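User: Continuing from earlier, I have the next pair ready.

Assistant: Great, send them over.

User: Here they are, in order.

Assistant: Folding the first of the pair now:
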Amino acid sequence: SPSNNQIKFISKLPLDVPITGATIQFQIQLIDTGWNSSVFKFYREPCSRDTNITIKAYGVSPIINSVDSLHLTIHCSGSIIDTIPIWNTGNNLLTISKISFSQHDGDIQILGWTSNRQLPISIPAKSSDSLIIQYSTAKIGREIIYLSIENNDRTLARGNKQPLSILLVCTLESEDISVKNMNIDLGDICLNSQSDTLISLINKGNITSNLSIIENCNPPFSLQVDQFDIEASKSGEIQLHFSPTKTGSFLDTLILQTGDCKKITLYLKGRGIDGALSIQPNSISDMITTNQSKTFSIKISNIGNIPLGIVNYSFNPPLSGFTADLRPILTQNIDTTQSITFDLTITANQPGSYSGEICFEADGICPTSICIPVELTSIARAITTDQSIDFGKIYCDGLLYDNLWIRNKGTIPDTVTQITISGESCFSIYQSPQIPAVINGNDSVGVIILFLPINEGDFSANLHIETIQPKGQIFDIPITGSFYRSVISSNTTLLDFGILEKCDEPITKQFTIYNNGMLDEILTAIQKDFGNYYSFDLLDNIPLPGKDSVIISITFHPDIAKNEGNYLGEVIWASSSCPDTIKIDFIAKIIEPKLSYSKFDINFGNVWKDEIKFDTIQINNNSAVTRQINIIQLPDNSDFQIVAMNNNVKVDFPISIRPNTSIELIVSFNASKVGDFGDKFIIEESSVCKDTLEFHLQSVVPNEQYYARIFIEDYEIPYDNILTFYVELSKDLPKVIADSIQFAIDFDKYLFYPMKLGVRDENLNSYNSIEYNYLNGRIDASINYQQSQHLLNNKGKIIAITGLTLFSSPTITPLIISDFQVFTKKELYLTKEDGQLKVLDICEPLARNKIIINNNIPFIELPTQIIENQTLELIAHNLKDGSSISIYNSFGQKMIEQSLPKGNNTISINIKDFPSGIYFIVPNEGDLGYFQFINLK
């Protein structure tokens, strides 16, 4: 009997079991990890015996565990990131192959795993990882989302986790205040009135809204609201006031903070309107003769911003003794900015007076009214005058008269008792009737008023006239007049533009013309005396308002003037209103400063190669301005160089040369190669104007071919004498620098034997010994650089050969310059002329017995020191045993012959009895040609 259903016996019973055995089958289906076992009890026949079979199985599987749900809450807006832990509590590797979400409105994303793994991921047993998710939404409220994780957990003990489902509760919490209309128009409101509007606010969010004002509106809008709350799904109201104090349209904004999350902006609009009138004149005051009428014009204007209708007029208090009639009849409509003129006719019905006001009433959206005072007098007498005296405007000179007539329009005489004037002193009564003055009915008298102003301005006075009292008339007649003139002056009469060059930029100077009067003027140029090198920004028809000034610019153009000299000009302006003139003179001077140069062409002539030759250009500044020079083009050939010197000090370009000073340009030519050379350099000199000057350079470097003779003179000297003969140079070669010289001299070896070779020193008065090789009548020598470099610079005896003349025949030998090589960079051609040596006092027959000497290898080594008249020890080389050595005198006579000791190459010869002289030591082996020379003293 099994203990659970996870291990089942699936074979059919009864089962025959043969001797060889039988197979029984079990089915294992575990729902959890770990050990699981079942015991099966079997009954056997024919022998009744029980057999127990125990089946054990070990479950291997990952077990996925996580949270059942996760709450994600966003406050206001944005997104939220959270992690979902995943544990593997099983005993095998957990593999997550796919993750998905149920249908949702918000934006939910998988950002990854905290382990940075990628799907599919594996989590080892007894380990964990966390899934990183991000949620965002714009929709307020709650959203349920299921997260499904597909995995390889096959256990069923804790339910089926294929897939594992996790509940995500996602919430966006925010207030959401809604206003039906964000644009609030409070309409047209009359000034000093108030309009109130209720604004309804609905909170469509899911949290309470805490309303507060961020930016309040400005007058004429106002909002008085304390902070208040609107719960979710509830509504509230705020009251907005509009009370304009001036006309016009008003726009404003009101910004409310609705809580933590949002704010709203309300756009406010309103218009202040007003019905307003203006009236002219601002009062009515007059005298009307009894039983006569007088008409007054009254202009009423709509100065508000709404249409109005004039519906009524009235006198306050009501008229008494007078009647009035208004035309056109009412009602009259006046649109904004328009006006209407009424004719008010007042009739005096009886003598008397009235003091009050007339008022006009207007109807419209904003009704209004306007009143002006009215003063009326009605008398039976009828003296009249002009209502005013206006002299108008007088210009330049002030003197004017005007007449005022006093008329009696009545039928009976009347008397004027007083005529006086008060106010500005420029008004006076020039002529009037004698007071008291009786004026008959329908007659008149005149008063002449004089206007004589001294100063400018607007003037006024009052002419007072009274008639006889009681019930007389009083007239106060205003007198007005204006006097204007212009007073023209300038701040200068001469403009000096100074000293300029033709290349100067145009220069502008200004002067000011003033009008110290009050009369506007126009200036006209009546005389223009100048050339086109002057220009004006203002010249003709120049406005010059009163109490103002005008600045006039004159520009001088040096580029138009060009030439040196003085440039004068003159302009005279005349005023147009009051006769006056202004004269301005102007002057400018053009100069052409230049530097002087001592030369523009430099010819260096012939310059030997590797020589440097110099020349100088003197530059003088005799002008009145500093000039600057600069080399703008150097010679193309760098062998030409230019250096500037100022007081023996080198200066760099550019160089400023002050007036009455000078500099020198040192121009050099370095003859680096052979040829004809022409070049140039260009100097730019400038102060304001720039001039370029071209300087031409010329030089010839001839091809250096030097020709000279190397020769030896003819010499005669007795034998057995010391002779010095010379190798001579025919001409000076100062440019030839010899790196070395090799030469060879040949002669008869039987007539001359060299003892010393010398080379002339630099002082030209002595000779320095040099080493040489001598063999069989030939001298070979080489002169090193130290002794050869200047050897050919001066002609004459350059090499001295000193030696001994010998006794031989023939007695004449050529002195042959067989080789003379000069190693130098110069092209040198030398011709050689041989000399001759004649040895005197030789006996020819005896001299023919000369020693015949060949050149052979055997030689004799002389001792380093010879003891005079003693034994001469010699060492022989390359001689056979039994060979001998002979000694000859200079006549060729054998003095001694001695054999070498056998087996020894050293021989001692007694020379005690030898006289002084030259001796030749010769080895006797065949036809010998080798000898050594020895001089015994």
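And the other member of the pair:
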Amino acid sequence: MRGVPMLAMLVHFNRMAVKALLRFKLHTLISFISLGFGFICFISAALISNYSDNFDQHFPNADRIYNLVIRNTRDTGTPDFFPIVNQPAARYLRAYFPDVPNIVRGSSGGLSQDVTIDGEAHTIATRYVEDRFFDIFPLDTLSGIEAGEALPPNSVMITEEAARRIFGRTDVVGERMLIANQADVVIAAVAKTSEFPSHLNSAIPLFNSELFVPMDIQEQAWRQRRIDAGLNPAVDNWGNQSDYVYIEIPEDMDFDLESFHRQLDDFVKSNIPEERAEFMTYELIPVNELMMATLSFVTGGVSIVKVLIVAGTLVLMIGCLNYSNLVIAQLSLRSQEIGVQKILGSKRGLLILQYCYESFLFVSFTLLIVLAVMFLALSTLQSASMIGVDPVMLLDPSLWVSIAVVVVVIVAIAGGYPALRTVTVPLISMLRPKGSSSYSGRLRATMVAVQFFISGTLMILAMVMFAQNVAMSQQLDGDVADPKIIVTTPVSTFSVDPDLLATQLKQYPGILSVTQVAIRPWDISMSSVSLSQSSDLNAVTIEAAIFNVGYEFTETMDVPFIAGRNFSRERTNDRFPNFSDLSPSSGPFSVLIDDDLAQAFGYENAGAAIGATLYRHMGAPTIENEMAIEIVVIGAIGAQKYQFVDFGSFGVQGNIVYLMPDNANNMIIKISKNNINDSLQHIDDTWNQLMPEMTLKRDFVDNLFYQAYKLFLGISAAIGTLSVFGFLIASIGLFGNATFITNIRHQEVGIRKVMGASSGRLLRMLLLNFAKPILIANVFAWPVGYLIANTYVSMFATRTEFGALPFIMSLLLSVLIAVLAVLSQSWKSARMRPAMALRYE
């Protein structure tokens, strides 16, 4: 063969490859489906990763734009790499780094703001930005100010899509709107729809921006609230983490990231209050990592992109193992061909080259078809105006490096390994009509076990995710509970006393109760307070999540009231006063607590803590001087509904409820499920009667859930789809493998039948043989699946009790699919006449 020209050798290799494909048609189809689905999952995950890496890269100087993140210097239970930073940080950084002019604060986006235009209320996703924001992000405009220009005072920039949605047109420069019934502004520009992915324009509600508003407008409202409360409006609120801080490094600046981080360490020590500086510092991340860093906060520190990449890679691994297993089995039946080649003088290297080449051809053909499918899919998404999606994404070099590595691994396992095995097989064995059975059955079983271990783990996770979705949705009012209506118009902007509105509303029987809350239902946000059992300012404190509410909170929000008494209008000290009215001798003021907080203080439960005295530790910027305010527990409550994230992982050890309606800016109305339409009409009529000059904006609380939970529904759907793909690939691979193994074991079956074994006994033997690696795989999949699933559900305030059902279901599905996949082949082999099995021996 040495003298054969290269072209002739390739022609021979191609002919042998086609011959093998035609000989094993069923298994070729199974291998194609397995690898095809695996490649689709893997490439899709890789494209999502590359897509996220390209966020905001179209802006000038994108490689020098960074975001400030908070890093923990010790274990505090709070998020690490947190990009929503302390409110005064940008102002102090500008003074500390005078050579970096573009240090800008901007709200984190996705803020649903009510605006009134020509007497009609609308909700719009608003982002507040400081001056020079558009120096860093020069958004192209259709009309109005030019790209990169700062917004004039009391003006806003609206996006093209928002202008069309609200006005039905884009020529809206000069139109006026009232923001939150307070700020009268004029539209100064219309931003073009971006053709590139950006955290400023996203389908994820957490990031979407439809209206850009000067930060001064928000600051003025905040200062006015502090003045009204008798507090210093100029105080630095380091405890408020609500904004992003963007830093653009000048092009002419000699910049080293590690050196800048050391300067940030010095900045923290010299500028941030000592009680915070002792456990935190600042670092920078590239702006294209901002979205994933923010989402990691929502997902408990887990990167969504990395999860999808791992899941996609695992599905591809199942497909690769499937294909490799089938090729190894094929080689056992092609042993005559290999034996003849060895007799004719083929060397080991040439055999390895031939079968590696065959595998390379098949993998390349499958990959070519997959790329064509992906090209069509990306073209369809591009036609649907999905921002930043383009078939050109398939040309990304990093994608091809990953694909090349995968192809090399598949070719090495499916092509190289079987050829190497031929060296150890005697020629006489290879020339048997039924082929050699010397290929490692242990290796085949291991490959099957690994496939079902991966697919079983993914299946467990998918079922737990589904159960978690059900658990979360059970908090919804739906058709079962009396629905809650949220008035999205801030209470602080009402032109009448909120108590008057509540009284008028409750005159109608369909209005069951009315309350106020500081944090909207389903919001991914939390405020905490420091509590102790001593008035000593140096006492050890416990952090608790605080809920400032109005009267009738537990009745309206369906919070279980376990023991004690509720807040009462007749008891003056039930109501926590404005901060400006506090003094060290104030109190005691009444609070409600839950079991977690009571247990943190050493009580058996919240009921046992009724009457207990605690102290709320307060200081700047909430009040001027540090003090401990006495509070007393008057009631025990159960778990709160309408909660999304479990903030226990952030260091809080329970919940405490204060009656403080002046600090609860959202009105919630509970209406009768038997009289919804008339109740809604009464709300509208009462509002128009009391505040005709203001437009009412209301929504069902259930709708807030779907807005907040959309991300997790998408994640669970993606993992569920990948798990189904992985399971199907493993199952059809097992079916293909069964045809080979039963063929190889014909002699064994024949001998056993001669020795008296019945067909039923042989069938059980064969089925058990196939099921054994699957059972072993599930033994390993259960603990791994439990750890992953438990980590996932621990992120949520309401957790599913998944128990053993997902694990048993995964096992039963695995065994059932395995039995169905191999039953026909096993039955055919068990029913074979001994003479047919032994006629060549």
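Worth noting for the second one:
The two ends are 33 Å apart (CA to CA). The chain has four domains: 1-71+301-439, 81-230+241-250+282-291, 442-476+702-841, 490-694.
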